[in-house]
From TrEMBL:
This is Oligopeptidase B. One of its GO terms (molecular function) is serine-type endopeptidase activity. Signal peptide: none annotated. PANTHER family: PROLYL ENDOPEPTIDASE-LIKE, PROTEASE FAMILY S9A OLIGOPEPTIDASE. GO terms for biological process: proteolysis. It comes from Maricaulis salignorans.
Length: 757
């Protein structure tokens, strides 16, 4: 039972953003000669144009860098004491707070006529979520651990039940370990980090963040009495590991700049924290976990393109960390424990899509690594899970994931097969090591998530849970397509498309196009309920699997980063153009949507092809690229130079970045309607990025389109923390999208007419 999933050894390839269910209706549109759509006039948009927007004061600052000069009129919006603001939001500069308050008041006024529509969308989405849902229990010794929600509850309840030691069947009452709703009662925001019981089952350690700043407090609870016996720190990343004697925890410290830079060892009931490891390179972050057999605490220090691992004996609370292999530029390796050796997933020796190597437990240095599974170009090895007799390998080929099971004794392998054309997978090893069972989840854009227990020896799969959609769902009502969009350089970009069977594919339907395209993150073809309310109203929903992710293997990622970053944006535009040319939508009738680095994607795309889009939603968008990558004090800047480049030292990197940076490339031209969101305590994409971008867009755009900003004054990167509160943010985004494509007016009028009756 964990939030950050160390001990349970969970691999997710699933959890995509595509969802379904609909009773479609199409907007009344007319096609023009150039395959664009003339959307009906929107009374909501016309009304909004008449509302005066805030205009941020310009205080120009000239920035000289590597012989280049740029002017930033809005640099003042970054609070000089931003580190303190992350911990104490109330100290925000008064002028900045006044601007953010004005922006929130403005969007409230603009969106006020859609309040009832937003409520309807919120209720629709909430109605598709089983409110008293529960996870499938995971057995650990004489207990099974699980989490659940109560009806109407916003936060998880973490619980356990005793099980029969022979049959494994539950034979006792639920014991609540943490009541998330009760924990959140005194706070506007609450997020759980790691939640882990001790190996002897007597104690529970858990981490909580109450600001959204991602600084977590680690608490230890005596399960029998319910008392908090110690609070180890309030400066943690939220990650920790128990030693096997249940006496000690290892935890990660987050410094004043938000970086994970130290590992401490501390007795269960407080006492002195002992520094175990400190990372000297600001470009490397630390993570911590347990090896598969739980014999070692694993410290990983990694950047985007290289890492190194240290092991500590989990049975000895005084043991020192032992380095496996020193870091090497552009070499990554990840460790999996087996009974007689370590296995390594690595890109050593030019294995771009990774290979599997092995070494003895007692001598695991790099000089002893030998190939077990050689590199196969185009077959990306995503991860490994180890058991006593088995190894489970996750791979992706041709943009689809797969699960491969290997028996140590014989070396024989088999693959778990699935029937659908596009799908998403996840695997959980659970707590126990000497077992033949793995648990996997399966979903597709038309199939709600199914959770199975799979016997690796007999190949039997047992359905343990199927995601319920309380409002009803029939996969046959929906159509899922995978198209290939030709990129400007000839690459074929996979695009997953979902629409209702009744939606006409003649170019008249509006479409939401989602993308991300950074850090190698691949958006899978999974089932999600949030886009349902768009599909219900006749929109097509599409996900572009663009370069910068790893849908096409690791090279797909390399082809969308650093000097190749422009491919990410041109791929997204190519996806939109292909969808229009094939009749799924038409130019000018697309809403672009992305968050964080996906917000960068959205900002760059509307700078490059503004007339392709009717609207754009950029959630917590990374849009001020050059300024952020030039500020070495920001939490993610040094670690992300390998992803974006270093404009402090490299003139070439500076020129590459400024050529696509959405904030720097805002021009005097017409733009689609834009909605940006942010969080005041967000340490990943700081609040001033979307604020500055919106200010410059509003000042420079030559049309009378909308430029809106919603700043959450009590949350960070993930927005509101409660599961239903976050849906209200989605409902607002969807209402905005419907406004921009002309679908909101009629429904707003209909809702108002019903209210008058």
């Amino acid at each position: 039972m964990t939030s950050h999933t160390t001990s349970q050894r969970v691999i997710r390839i699933g959890a995509g953003l595509v969802a379904l269910l609909a009773a479609a209706c199409s907007p009344e549109t007319t096609m023009t000669a150039d395959n664009t759509t003339a959307t009906p006039s929107s009374a909501l948009i016309d009304r909004a144009r008449g509302i005066e927007a805030p205009m941020a004061e310009q205080r120009p600052v000239e920035i000289e860098q590597l012989g280049f000069t740029r002017i930033d009129e809005y640099q003042w919006i970054k609070d000089e004491n931003w580190q303190q603001v992350m911990r104490e939001p109330e100290v925000l500069d008064a002028d900045i707070r006044a601007l953010l308050d004005a922006e929130n008041a403005y969007i409230d006024t603009v969106m006020e006529p859609t309040a009832a529509l937003q409520e309807q969308i919120f209720q629709e989405i909430r109605g598709r979520i089983k409110e008293d849902d529960s996870s499938v229990p995971e057995r650990d010794g004489n207990y099974e651990y699980f989490s659940r929600y109560r009806e109407g509850g916003q936060y998880p309840i973490y619980s356990r039940r005793p099980v029969d030691p022979v049959t494994g069947e539950a034979n006792g009452d639920e014991e609540i370990l943490i009541d998330g709703d009760a924990e959140a009662a005194d706070f506007d925001y609450l997020d759980f980090g790691e939640v882990e019981h001790s190996p002897d089952h007597r104690y529970l350690a858990y981490a909580v963040d109450i600001r959204g700043s991602e600084y977590y407090e680690v608490r230890i609870k005596d399960i029998a009495t319910g008392a908090i016996i110690s609070t180890l720190t309030d400066e943690s990343t939220g990650d920790f590991v128990w030693t096997n004697d249940s006496e000690t925890l290892y935890w990660i410290w987050r410094d004043d700049n938000g970086r994970s830079s130290r590992v401490y060892r501390q007795p269960r009931e407080g006492g002195v924290s002992e520094l175990v490891y400190e990372e000297p390179d600001a470009g490397f972050f630390i993570s911590i976990g347990l090896s598969d057999g739980e014999n070692y605490v694993v410290i990983n220090a990694g950047g985007h393109t290289s890492n190194e691992i240290r092991l500590i004996d989990a049975n000895d609370s005084s043991a020192e960390p032992v380095l496996i292999a020193p870091r090497e530029t552009n070499v990554e390796y990840y460790l999996t424990e087996a009974p007689d050796r370590f296995y390594f997933r690595t890109n050593l020796d030019g294995a771009v899509d990774f290979k599997i190597m092995a070494a003895p437990l007692d001598n695991p240095g790099r000089e002893n690594w030998v190939d077990v599974i050689e590199h196969r170009p185009g077959v990306l090895v995503l991860d490994l899970i180890g058991f006593q007799d088995w190894q489970v390998r996750m791979e992706r080929e041709n943009a689809l994931p797969r699960i491969v099971v290997r028996e140590y004794a014989t070396g024989a392998e088999h693959q778990i097969d699935f029937a659908e054309e596009a799908y998403s997978l996840g695997v959980s090893a659970g707590y126990e090591y000497a077992v033949d069972l793995i648990r996997f989840s399966y979903e597709s854009p038309s199939t709600p998530e199914e959770t199975y227990d799979y016997n690796m020896r007999t190949h039997e799969r047992v359905l343990r849970k199927r995601q319920e959609v309380p409002s009803g769902h029939d996969p046959a009502d929906y159509v899922v397509r995978r198209i290939m969009a030709p990129a400007s350089d000839g690459a074929q970009i996979p695009v997953t498309v979902l629409y209702h069977a009744d939606t006409p594919i003649d170019g008249s339907a509006p479409l939401m196009l989602y993308g991300y395209g950074s850090y190698g993150i691949t958006i899978p073809s999974g089932f999600r309920v949030t886009p349902l309310s768009l599909v219900d109203r006749g929109m097509v929903y599409a996900v572009a699997h663009i370069r910068g992710g790893m849908a096409g293997g690791y090279q797909w990622y390399l082809d969308g980063k650093l000097e190749n970053k422009e491919n990410t944006f041109s791929d997204f535009i190519a996806a939109g153009e292909a969808l229009a040319s094939q009749g799924y939508t038409s130019r000018g009738n697309i809403v672009a949507y992305g968050g964080s680095a996906g917000g960068l994607l959205v900002g760059a795309a509307i700078n490059l092809q503004p007339d392709l889009f009717a609207g754009a939603i950029a959630a917590v968008p990374f849009v001020d690229v050059v300024n952020t990558m030039s500020d070495a004090e920001l939490p993610l800047t040094p670690p992300e130079w390998p992803e974006w480049g270093n404009p402090i030292e490299s003139a070439e990197d500076y020129q590459t970045m400024i050529a696509y940076s959405p904030y720097d490339q805002v021009r005097e031209m017409a733009y689609p309607h834009v909605l940006a969101t942010g969080g005041l305590t967000d340490p990943r994409v700081t609040y001033w990025e979307p604020t500055k971008w919106v200010a410059r867009l509003r000042d420079r755009r030559t049309d009378d389109g909308l430029t809106l900003l919603r700043m959450n004054m009590g949350a960070g990167h993930g927005g509101a923390s409660g599961r239903f509160d976050s849906l209200r943010e989605t409902a607002m985004n969807w209402a905005f999208a419907l406004m921009t494509v002309g679908l909101a007016d009629g429904e707003v009028e209909e809702i108002a007419a019903e209210a008058r009756q």
